[in-house]
Amino acid sequence: MLRESTSRLLTALRLALYPALESAEARHFQALTMEAQNARLSGDLAKAERLYLTAVAEAQSSHDASGLNLACHGLAQVYQEQHRFREAESIFQDQLEAAAKSPQPNTLVHAGHMSLAQLYEDEGKFTEAEIHYKAALAETEKTEVFPGRAFWCSTSTWLARFYIARQRYSEAEPLFQRASEIVEEDQPSNSYLPQHLQQFAKLYEAQGKDEAAEGLYRRALALCEESQGPHSLYTALAAEALATFCRARRRYTEAEELYRRSLTIVEEDVSSRAAMWTKGWRPWRNKKELQIRLSLNQIPISTSLDQLATVYEDQQKYTESEPLRRRSVEIKERAWGERHRSFLIDSLTAHAHALRKIGQEREASQIEMRVEAIRLRYPQGSVQCVLRGTVRPIKRNLQWRFSTFVSALIHPSRFRPSNLQRNP
Predict the structure, then answer these.
(1) What would be the CATH architecture of the domain defined by 272-380?
(2) What is the rounded distance in angstroms from the CA atom of residue 200 to the CA atom of residue 173?
């Protein structure tokens, strides 16, 4: 008992003080793999491959090979995105076999099955994909490795989506049903329950069971209002989901009301964030940086405006939709300029269409000429116009270190090496 308590305390201290107790070699490896992951996320797969190969070589020659699994997994993901399926399969298979042979129960068996399932699904080998999805789901029932039921829920959702894509609805339904029940039983106020219900609702939609689908959408909205508040972004998203359902059934009055409610919530949230940033901005900081942040902060408003405008256009109410389209374009131009051209072109085209419908031919023609000029400057395929994420180091301030220390003491199983090396 004393030995276990001492071990837990030392582990907690090591994690809380990280990277102060880590070697320069370990910090270099972390930076290398992070750079490789950012290259993959940005679409530079050739650079990502080079960096991951370097990381693999360094891990193999290091006295501490704990990072080898992570580097190999990243390399396999690159191969998968390059459609070099056999090379990716070889790495994933090796990792799964090594995890299965381990004398200690570990989460890497589940990760290996999930990696292979997603690989085979991408490749179109659906029989093999289903086998591995089911094997991964079976792993989550090992309580000594997965003490809670959250992993069962997430894995069953992957399998259910796989069935929906194959139109095997009768097999997807019990998985969604059970996952929703588990989430509700474990934590009735859990913010993930509305998302589970919305996924379940989409299944019913695909089957044409509109009454059942609507009931789930409305319940998800009610749960968000109850747990997060009527003015939260969770509530706005739930209202949008129900509005989209109503719009698809030409129930435009309900859809308009819900989209307008969502827009109001989003505008309030954006306004509060802007006020907080402006109030906390120090005079010596870059004012231009603040303006950029404020402009980007308004993008969600643009999305909500477009959704509401679409409902009006479905009803041929272009007089009401045109101001919304105009404002949406203005927000995108302030935030992005022409950096994300595909989004800007779509907004400009929709605005021009609304202008033509209300007889503003001259302004519509000017916008259409601008769209063509943008397309000539940036031909399709010349630049990859997508939004991407990047990975940054965690800010290890005093609050983070204290929180990590307490978490490692209370939940030591979350910080076992097998969990820390889990499929990202």
Answers:
(1) Alpha Horseshoe (1.25)
(2) 7
CA distances from 127 to 121, 143, 168 (A): 9, 27, 13
> Highest mean pLDDT: which of 26-40, 98-112, 252-266?
252-266
pLDDT of residue 418: 43
What value does the mean pLDDT of the chain take?
Answer: 84
DSSP state of 412: G
Give the three-state DSSP class for 389: coil
Asked whether 42 and 35 are in contact (CB, 8 A), the reply is no
CA distance linking residue 344 with residue 354, whole number of Å: 15
Rounded distance between C-alpha atoms, residue 307 and residue 303, angstroms = 6
More confident: 390 or 143: 143
* Domains of the chain, residue spans: 272-380
Task: Output DSSP code: residue 234.
Answer: H
How far apart CA 81 and CA 97 sit, in angstroms, is 23
- Of 265, 352, 338, 272, the closest CA to residue 303 belongs to 265
